[in-house]
């Protein structure tokens, strides 16, 4: 905890400056004070936490699950086949060149206001860091270790399970830490474009009512969700990669 004293102090200082600044300049309409946001969050805690937060979490979890399963599978496939790598890798890179905000309305046309239009947006954002980081990890194995295992009679299965998987695990978790934070953004974008429930939808609804504090209240929850997911991945990484600490 003591390692984060500087960060905590900086956050508190910024909040104080924000609070004082909005009171002096009277920017409550477009930039409500932190206390106003907290008050609105308390007033709306019922619908926000009971209705809209579960809807957003479901989108995030489904999108992340699909990205992890197919992202890791494609990374493994590309690592064992140059043909697949040449076919898919440029497409994966190109997918990040298109603004997601421009594609989101198209997904609404395809899938309507169902959960899947938001899930697809989340997948597009989270698929890239998981796939690319895992693929780089699979290719970063030590040639010396590989040659050593081959001289000891290791099979391709042994090389994959005992060398490539441990070597790629840190890269996978690095990509996952990026993906979990992006998944919150993806879910919010999808809900902002078209949804019937969710924190992004609620924020957009508050904007149409010109309620500045109401717009920021679900954003605070979204930020908290992203931080909690990141911390969960960090904790999981420490458990799974315990062998790195022992080294």
Automatic annotation (TrEMBL):
GO process annotations (BP): transmembrane transport
Keyword Nuclease: no
GO CC aspect terms: plasma membrane
Domain of life: Bacteria
Family matches, as InterPro entries: MetI-like, MetI-like_sf
Transmembrane portions of the chain: 7-33, 53-76, 88-113, 119-138, 172-195, 215-236
PROSITE patterns documented for this protein: ABC_TM1 (PS50928)
Cellular compartments annotated: Cell membrane
Bilayer topology annotation: Multi-pass membrane protein
CDD domains for this protein: TM_PBP2
Record protein name field: ABC transporter permease
Source organism per UniProt: Metabacillus sediminilitoris
Organism lineage: Bacteria, Bacillati, Bacillota, Bacilli, Bacillales
